[in-house]
């Protein structure tokens, strides 16, 4: 008997059995699943039931389990955020120009002025039908929450160790509270946690735990403020610090421990003091007291050349001091560290404060990597290469503005050394240590997700602990215990870096979305029972915080002008009207049926403490009727509105409007960009088109890009996306009336861009020191990045570069076209040469300044970088000579000075510089 599963696009699943003898089919409907099925449908077999795996081009897919006499049960969701029709960021400045509040920051300087504590967030409209959503686009590593519980107090730090007592496996969880410690016992299946009472607990619960460690002999060492506890499976001991050190009392402030050594710091009469304690089975003895320099803020232990050393961070005369001691108390080195200032006048922003935490990563028996966090958000990485402990290389990076705390990884992550850092309420993992720069090159954000609550925002994390083994049992996975205020979360991570979307269900097909600068919410236009309506989504909670009202401000299902069956919202705009020096914010809504509404919003008091922290109400203030054609777009200034109805006085409908003084830049659906002069001389004269494109383009969207405002007329460049998966960059000759645009660049893309947006979306560590390095340019005057989204949900990044850098990158692209490994489907001269060795074909490598050649394919360069292909590419034709020549031309040769004088080593330096440039220009903007 054969069994066939048949799936319809609308989600109906049919089960067909065919008898092998009579070939008679038996058809039975299994039920309907709430997803679109078009691109993927297959079956898998479980021990107890069949499993269906579905996917579509509209909304998320899923994995479903078939249960007898019941509808299919969804097991998990497969993320999918297509189709996308709109994109928005939380950037508060929509223009390519600098924000008026930041006008005092000169755009001439090389370094970026981006010191925002938080990156702008990216949201897009996703899907069609009842499963439609608003999706936040995030990039990094997913941390899947397996267990979560809420403690009654704020937890400062936690540890989780496996234990085995009376033949039963389990875990001890130590929770460090502000003034005490709680200890929980979990069974192996993590169910029914028990809090240990102080009487029955082998740990010190009366004071705060400051360090904990499990030795290779499974002995747990707990260091609290007052004592050190040694806990083995069958015995335990507790040692008072004052008694061990021969003092009347001793209150430890910081501590660190290894298998047989415990070091604690305390505040003495005049300065901080370090005490070295030795562990011998269940005994603890005092070894050495060290008078430390300054006031200790963190301590750590590390081994180098079979010797153990103490590294102490302290503060002296207001400056952070880093000191290395031997266990006998000998001072090995002591240095005050501060980051090098990129430009003068930035001392306040880049000043480094006291160290907060330290950890050691042992690369080899001799080489040690030390990592320290600071109160000012800096990350300090130290490489000790050999026996000479006093001489080490050091790097300082700023990854945030709040205190940075570092936490060790229990093992290699994807075969690489790694550690975790908490800063600005977010958790990141650092990998790819580079001895050349003494730093970890790859920094990746970790996002905690809950499969049962896809709209949940990643919780703020202030501490993390990495377990020795993965609780999931999967190889290459790591289990972490994360702390978020009073919440404790157990999560599982694995080395896959990619999209981590967050989905906020809307219940109807979305059409437009904007970010309200006034109310700090996402205003979404979507359908509800085939009627257009608005939702005001809080970005943090994902909750709709607004309710509709009628003209009397009484609750209503729809505001006046919306809720008409078959109508669609085409335009959304936040307009700030100025009258008598006062600002009046409104939301402007335009529809397919020719309606225009001016919507007012007001804040209400929350009805209860348990509900949303804020509540808004919106209603129609003014409604303009009488139009039979769709109103696609609307824009406003301080005194009025400008909107386009149908294609009145235009060759095709206007989809985007932008006002520049008395000029309007109008993007039309089928006739590219047009500039219209609105300053008419009399009532009898009409606005006229004064600039237009040289060719007719079927367009998608347009955005302006410009490096600086310092040279009027040079910038911006208007980038227009086309319906044929291409784009064009045009320059508008503002000073020459009735002159056509100058087309600067054209290019092809994998898919058509549906919407462009700008935003400061880079992580802090990528944005804080972003410079015009290697002849790169800023994409906007306020150093934002330009993003574009396609209808299939793919996100694209656009950047401006100078001509010298273009020449170098275009050479690599031309070389890559000749390599079958990188471009196997390009019919290049190499493939022709292989097919006919007698042909004499020299590849055309030198870049030509045609507009079609001015676009650099970043995806192709990324393949070259990932494959480390430069060494082979430069062997093609005159590649190495052009490669070195073009590198010499970048920024007047400051990066290659002396390279040609070093003989055979010079070529290696050129190649290394080429990789550095590729890494820099290909850094992701999310």
Which CATH architecture of the domain at 87-137 and 503-798 is right? 7 Propeller
Shape: globular
Instruction: Say what the CATH topology of the domain at 87-137 and 503-798 is.
Output: Methylamine Dehydrogenase, Chain H
pLDDT < 50 runs, ≥5 residues? 101-113, 341-348
Q: Considering DSSP H and I runs of 4 or more, what fraction of the residues is helical?
A: under 10%
- Main beta-sheet strand count, sense and barrel state: 9 strands, mixed
Biased composition (Basic and acidic residues): 98-107
InterPro entries: RSE1/DDB1/CFT1 (IPR050358)
Protein name: Cleavage/polyadenylation specificity factor A subunit N-terminal domain-containing protein
Region (Disordered): 92-127
Describe this structure in words.
Residues 98-107 have a biased composition (Basic and acidic residues). InterPro entries: RSE1/DDB1/CFT1. This protein has 926 residues and is mostly beta strands. It is built from nine helices and 61 strands. The strands form 15 sheets. Strands 11, 32, 33, 34, 35, 36, 37, 38 and 39 form a nine-stranded mixed β-sheet that branches. A five-stranded mixed β-sheet has the order 44-48-47-46-45, with no helix packed on it. Helix 4 packs antiparallel against helix 8 and helix 8 (879-888) crosses helix 9 (904-921). The chain is globular, with a radius of gyration of 32 Å.
